[in-house]
């Protein structure tokens, strides 16, 4: 299950996914995915 899809279609209430990591900084794929869906932070 994809956390962002689950939140956006209300199959889950909360989720955790990587926005940054210790070695590479911002995880651009997560930022781009976050922008594609409409969720409340």
Please sum up the structure shown.
This protein is α+β, with helices and mostly antiparallel strands and 41 residues long. Helices cover 37% and strands 10% of the residues.
Describe this protein's structure.
This protein has one domain (3-36). A hairpin with a 3-residue loop joins strand 1 and strand 2. The protein contains 2 helices and 2 strands, in the order H-E-E-H. The chain has a two-stranded antiparallel ribbon with strand order 1-2. The mean pLDDT is 83. The longest helix is centred in the C-terminal third of the chain and has 9 residues, at 28-36. The protein has helices at residues 3-8, 28-36; strands spanning 20-21, 25-26. It starts with a helix and ends in a 5-residue tail after the last helix. By secondary structure, it is of the alpha+beta class.
What structural class do you assign from the helix and strand content?
alpha+beta
H/E topology pattern: HEEH
What's the overall average pLDDT, rounded? 83
Indicate the percent of residues in helices: 25-40%
Number of domains: 1
Poorly predicted tracts of residues: none
């Amino acid at each position: 299950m994809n956390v962002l899809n689950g939140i956006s279609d209300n199959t889950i209430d909360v989720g955790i996914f990587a926005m940054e990591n210790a070695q590479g900084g911002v995880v651009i794929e997560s930022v781009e995915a976050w922008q594609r869906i409409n969720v409340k932070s």
